UniProtKB/TrEMBL annotation:
Pfam families the record matches: MBOAT
Function recorded in the entry: Sterol O-acyltransferase that catalyzes the formation of stery esters.
Identification of the protein by name: 6637_t:CDS:1
Transmembrane portions of the chain: 13-33, 45-64, 159-178, 214-232
């Protein structure tokens, strides 16, 4: 019944099936459909302007760093900025994602702006997966993890594997489109989080949070640069 009525009671199924409601879902910065979303009372123009300028500033810094430090170090001197940012698509999206979501939420008066949590304090990769991209996490939690358990009667362990498998496959598909090569590096590294999550349940890590956080940051410092090297070396 919770899926058929909005929390405020203003919208109920099937009255939500309209073009306007569909367009609204396309515009709001979320991947999970709800009958009604929390809204702020008004748009703050100067605050929106500030965040929009922050997005342009982020892209400008990315362009400068790519042109000055990354492209000159690549073996192919004809590599362009667009091609280079395409090869680093995952990092590129992470840089701009939060700011663009925030700006869209401001234009839409979208009140739920918890797009990430304190992922930098993560002591396990499982915690990082929950915190670093909450819109995607909520989508996978509802439409993959819970659906696998409720509809296909999978165990929690199998549903977790299916969730990571599908997420890894989609991420690798993006890299296939960008690089025009099937290499499966990103897929392998993302699936590698499953044994790392199992390792995080060891007593030495559970009892020493600082060690878990250090282990997490070691993987974060090592993984993305290694992925960049693997995709750019061919």
């Amino acid at each position: 019944e919770g899926y058929l009525n909005s929390p405020t009671g203003n919208i109920s199924y099937p009255n939500n099936i309209t073009i306007l409601n569909f367009v609204d879902f396309l515009l709001v910065p979320t991947l999970v459909y709800e009958l009604e979303y929390p809204r702020t009372e008004k748009i703050r123009p100067w605050y929106v302007f500030e965040k929009a300028m922050a997005i342009f500033g982020t892209f400008f810094l990315l362009y400068i760093n790519t042109e000055q430090y990354i492209i000159p170090a690549l073996p192919n001197a004809s590599t362009s900025f667009l091609n280079c940012t395409g090869l680093f698509a995952g990092r590129f999206v992470q840089v701009a994602n939060v700011r663009s979501l925030l700006t869209r939420s401001l234009f839409q008066r979208f009140a739920d702006r918890e797009f990430y949590d304190d992922w930098w304090n993560s002591t396990t990769w499982e915690e990082f997966a929950r915190k670093w991209n909450k819109p995607v996490h909520h989508f996978l939690l509802r439409h993959v993890y819970r659906y696998s358990i409720e509809s296909y009667k999978l165990s929690k362990r199998d549903a977790t594997f299916m969730t990571f498998f599908l997420s890894s496959l989609i991420h690798e598909l993006v890299m296939v489109v960008v690089s025009k090569k099937i290499r499966m590096y990103l897929f392998f590294f993302q699936m590698l989080q499953l044994p790392l999550i199992a390792m995080s349940k060891l007593k030495v890590i559970k009892d020493n949070k600082w060690f878990g956080n250090a282990f997490f940051w070691f993987g974060l410092f090592l993984g993305p640069p290694l992925l960049g090297i693997l995709y750019c070396r061919e």
